[in-house]
Amino acid sequence: xxxxxxxxxxxxxxxxxxxxxxxxxxxxxxxxxxxxxxxxxxxxxxxxxxxxxxxxxxxxxxxxxxxxxxxxxxxxxxxxxxxxxxxxxxxxxxxxxxxxxxxxxxxxxxxxxxxxxxxxxxxxxxxxxxxxxxxxxxxxxxxxxxxxxxxxxxxxxxxxxxxxxxxxxxxxxxxxxxxxxxxxxxxxxxxxxxxxxxxxxxxxxxxxxxxxxxxxxxxxxxxxxxxxxxxxxxxxxxxxxxxxxxxxxxxxxx
Length: 254
Ligand SMILES: C[S@@+](CC[C@H](N)C(=O)[O-])C[C@H]1O[C@@H](n2cnc3c(N)ncnc32)[C@H](O)[C@@H]1O
Known about the structure:
- With 254 residues, the protein is of the alpha/beta class.
- The protein has one domain: Vaccinia Virus protein VP39 (Rossmann fold), CATH 3.40.50.150.
- The chain has eight helices and eight strands, in the order ααααβαβαββαββαββ.
- Strand 1, helix 5 and strand 2 form a beta-alpha-beta unit.
- The longest helix has 19 residues.
- The chain binds S-adenosylmethionine.
- S-adenosylmethionine (SAM) binds next to helix 5.
C-alpha cells in the first residue's frame, strides 16, 4: 500500500506541544531583547551608563531609606507584585526580593542592569530585571506596589502626567506607590554633579494622588556629598494607597 509520508508526519506531530514550544521561544526572545515585546533603544540616555561601569557599586548595596518604611506599610504576607522604576544597580529591588516581594525592576542603563542581576545572583533571589526607558515604556500589567527613588526628575515635564496616570491605572486596589522626587527651591543651588534631570515643583508629586489615601507626604532638605563636593537637595516623598472603590469597607474600611 502506498503511504503518504507527509500525512504520516502530520498524524504523528504533537501540535499542542509544538505550539507551546513556539510560544516559549517567542517569550524567551522577547525577554532577551526587552520585556513583553518592548525593545529599548541602544543609545545611552543618561550619564549613569558610564558611572555604573566601575567595579564597585556606585550607590553601594545597602537598601535606600524608604525601603524599610515601605516594608512596614506593605508587609508582604502574600507575594506582593512590586515594580521598581529606575532601579540603578539593583540594591533596593534585591532587598525587596529578599523580603518576599515578587519584584520586577527596570532601568535605562545596560551597565546598571548587569550589576543588578549580579547582585540578585549573589543573594540568590529572583528579580525580573530588564532595560527600559521610562519615556517610551508603559505598563500593561498590574502591580501591588510601585516604588521609585531618585528617578522622577528624569521624566520629561510634558510626559509626567501620562506616565503617572499609566502607573496609577496599573496599580491594584489596596496597592501603594512609594515615590520620591527632587524638587526645586529658590534657596537651593543646582548640585555640582547634576545628572541632567529636571526637578519638580515643590508639592507637585502629591497632586497626582488626590483620590488616594496619602499615608505620608513629606518634604526634606538634606546634605549630599555625591561628586565629592558638599551640596544640598530638597526632596518630596509620598506613600499613597489606592483604596478599593468601596473604601475597603469589608476589611474594616476607612
Ligand atoms: C539617582 S539614580 C537612582 C538609582 C536607584 N533608584 C537607587 O536609588 O539606587 C537615577 C536612576 O534613574 C535612571 N534613569 C535615568 N533616566 C532614565 C530613563 N529615561 N528611564 C529609566 N531609567 C532612567 C538612571 O539610569 C539611574 O539609575
